[in-house]
Write a structure and sequence with these properties.
homodimer, alpha/beta, Aspartate Aminotransferase, domain 2, 13 strands, 12 helices, Aspartate Aminotransferase, domain 1
Chain lengths: ~400, ~400
């Protein structure tokens, strides 16, 4: 039986997560399938920012490092994040950006396995992880190499000369999901260490780091977790790996006695050693608002709705837009995909621009990928119907084929 | 003739910088001599934050990377900063934290001088610079060493085996000011490269990087420049050094084609190579407000007032508190000091806590330093009188000698 808009309204009526949409500022008429790039603004974010700026900075000034807990915020937020990704307290800390944290974690892992020279990475991954590791091994100059493997080739690439396997859990472009447990098990079977990048999985699906015996992980807070533009990244270091290696970006925030102002670096032996220096506090503090919303939601319900939104989106595109050359690149199997759906399309760039002009925001990734992210806390079922409907209009009328839709940039 | 409070009121009446105080939120009754640690909040900061959060993030969402110029903000702010520190456009960029940027700059400088192994640093400097370079050379494992020298020993330490001289322009604890021109000249005479840390000089006095032929520099925006707590650091790379070395924290923001999503890193050949990854945007954007205020002020007037505030503070402490064991550690000569005055005092910690309780905020640095920073845009002459008056009361009455003033932490 063919689906109708009413079916989607009915699904929204039954949706246990529907009330969460009220916690986000959703611009009138906007259908936003880009929360995998920049999450929407929680309504409470502004009030938190105002408190940090006017009260903590403006009025309490320097006292806020202690009184407002600025100095320990990186650990406090880390402990909250831990509950979302299957980690324990004291295993997660916020700091810097994803790239810098990949650098720290891979450097630490290589120090634990000094005799091995191979790092396994996915070549088609969002490239900053690769770039950072390329920078690291060039700098080390000790003959390390990256063994690039694509989806399906990774297990075979993990041989007993491998030091580190550094893979992104969900692929930024295709949305394919790796089997964390299986890859980590193979990694450890050959005596290597695992570094997982959770940028497209934390907040998108249930992540269980300790359940998979992961060694290190890194993630992003401004995508699915709605922390605000560019908000700090987080790192996970399993307790068993803490104190074993010193990550090399040894700033004063990771010193054993940061207020002793000693001349020489002495590392903390816990997760804080992975912190480097003073963090942009307003962005950091504000990111707690998005995180707190997640802590009140049921991650299993989020995953259930995410899969259903994606399934329906795929079904509608196939049913209603069959002849327009949208080829799905995201795996259809539930255990093989994250919370996004990507299609390749010859005119994908212009079509996406036309769709954005029609207030359906996805994004485009070169050379030909149209990418749609589904964030169950603020995306509704009827959004899916309406988005496909608007896309169908654009295709039926050929209205994407205009010069103004063909020239623009894009940002992750 | 002994000074009176009326003399200070008269100085305020003549002060050409006095109107700038209106641009800052100054809590009632507070005398704030800690702008060298965390600058005060410009009144316009909140409006800018609101715009970034509610409009750019909340409403425009992902479009803001282009529309609001988020991606290029690091360069835009760098160009503004350039005018304040004697640099040219395209020589300054905002990124990350001071420590991370010291790491990048020293790593790049060492790559330009691969045959040399010595880095000259001031051992008593705020230690994060030392820590970062210690982390770097340990990681490189190529026999580099830090030659620590104190004030007065630095020129002699610069011999022809030196690769890099990395000195902080104004010392965080004593406030002593190094002769940038002389040290840089000696550095280059022996064929080494200079990396200057401007954390306590940018915004405190006229810095002329190109006038001193400096190679690299780094600085802080949340102290004298009132950018907000932990706001991003900036880096200077002289045009002649750009494209010569690749700093090793090679994230996608420094890639030649960041939106090409290529597998392998290709460095930009300009200042942007020193950028690593996505920046916390709210903190970054808000920091522009404090910077813009400086761009409207006359740095020579700021320096003139700063010196006078410090001179008067020293004079009053000596005249009115002579017997209380406050020994000045900041040089009295104008060309030898920054914009702070530090005294050593046996009971400095408790006295500073008592002073803070009396609404005069300075800070304490172990083991015995009471530190007072003077920020001419919002500190008045009568503040100096009143601060010393309150300190005199505390000392005359012995009211610092209480348990509640003896147990607390401190943060830079």
């Amino acid at each position: 039986m063919t689906l109708t808009r009413e079916d989607f309204i009915a699904l929204d009526d039954q949706d246990v997560l529907a009330p969460f949409a009220d916690e986000f500022h959703i611009p009138d008429g906007l259908i936003y399938f880009d929360g995998n790039s920049l999450g929407m603004m929680p309504k409470a974010a502004m009030a938190r920012a105002k408190e940090v700026i006017e009260q903590e900075w403006g009025t309490d000034l320097i006292k806020s490092w202690n009184k407002a807990g600025w100095f320990n915020l990186v650990e406090k937020l880390g402990d909250k994040m831990a509950t979302l990704i299957g980690a324990n307290k004291g295993e997660v800390i916020y700091a810097d950006s994803t790239g810098l944290n990949v650098y720290k974690l891979v450097a630490a892992a290589l120090e634990i396995r000094p005799e091995r020279k191979v790092i396994v990475m996915e070549g088609s991954n969002f490239p900053t992880d690769n770039y950072m590791v390329q920078g690291l091994i060039k700098q080390l100059g000790r003959g390390h190499e990256i063994r690039f493997a694509e989806d399906g080739e990774i297990l075979d690439a993990i041989t007993d000369d491998v030091a580190v396997v550094c893979i992104t859990h969900v692929h930024y472009k295709t949305g394919h999901l790796h089997d964390m447990k299986k890859i980590t098990a193979k990694t450890q079977e050959v005596g290597a260490l695992s570094v997982w990048d959770l940028c497209h999985s934390a907040g998108a699906l249930a992540v269980d780091l300790n359940g998979s015996n992961v060694d290190f992980a890194v993630g992003c807070t401004y995508k699915y977790l709605n922390g605000g533009p560019g908000s700090q990244s987080f790192m996970f270091v399993a307790k068993r790996n803490q104190g074993k290696a010193v990550q090399p970006l040894t700033g004063w925030w990771g010193h054993a006695a940061p207020f002793g102002f000693e001349r020489d670096y002495r590392p903390r032996e816990d997760i804080r050693q992975f912190s480097t220096g003073t963090e942009p506090v307003v962005s950091l503090a504000m990111s707690e608002v998005g995180l707190d919303i997640f802590l009140r939601a049921d991650m299993n319900e989020i995953r259930k709705k995410s899969l259903k939104l994606c399934d329906l989106f795929i079904q509608l595109i196939e049913e209603r837009l069959g002849g327009y050359g949208f080829d799905i690149v995201t795996p259809k199997e539930h255990d093989r995909r994250g919370s996004q759906v990507s299609f390749s399309s010859e005119n994908g760039f212009a079509i996406m621009q036309a769709l954005i002009a029609a207030d359906v925001v996805g994004d485009f990734r070169a050379p030909d990928i149209m990418r749609f992210g589904f964030t169950p806390l603020y995306v509704s079922y009827v959004n899916v119907w309406d988005a496909v409907d608007r896309l169908k209009n654009i295709m039926d009328q050929g209205s994407w084929d205009k010069p103004e839709f063909k020239t623009q940039g894009s940002v992750t």
